[in-house]
Design brief:
With 200 residues, the protein is of the alpha+beta class. Helices cover 59% and strands 20% of the residues. The protein has helices spanning 2-17, 19-33, 37-42, 44-55, 59-68, 74-78, 89-100, 102-110, 118-125, 129-142, 186-191, 193-197; strands at residues 71-72, 83-86, 116-117, 145-152, 158-164, 166-174, 177-184. The protein is globular and about 50 Å long.
Amino acid sequence: MDNLLAPSLRKSIEENLGKSTLNKIEQRLMERHGMGIAQAIKDFYKFDGVLREFFGAGADGLETKFLQNIIDLTQQKKTTGNWITLKDQDLAKIFLESFADEDKKVIIGTVLDEPLIIADILNHCKVPQTSGYRKINQLIDHGLLISNGYEVSTDGKKIKKYETIFDNVKMDIEKNVVVVKIQLKKSSFQESTILQVIPS
């Protein structure tokens, strides 16, 4: 989940804090943890710690504001099932484009219920290997697929298995705006440092 949210969250942080404050925070992250903003956002506890150095208890309100610009957790509070609404159109576009691509849609459907290694995904999907690898890697880079577990090959090597971060996706168009609602897998919700740290 953090891979999916990180680029939009970084943009939201910069819009709210401004470039000079962001540069100071990034400098402090380098001093303390040897990492930049993009990396720290994916390990949100570290970003949170540095933000608190600058803003104290005010960091809670800022973090909530950063997140509210990109996702809406209100539906998650009202219902069980970890539903979130993507407000950021760049995030919505990732889902829309992934489901519009027939191969990616089939890949997502294949690993919706159980994690599989890439070779098994390609076999199930019957997609060409070269483009299949490229599309699977795009889904991983965008954060729609995550590794979950391993399979041991005949020569003893561990091969990563991949699954989706969600159980369900709903897409609507309201007043020319794409609204994407995703039901996160329980593990994706619990393993997201961003969703665990930021008070919802």
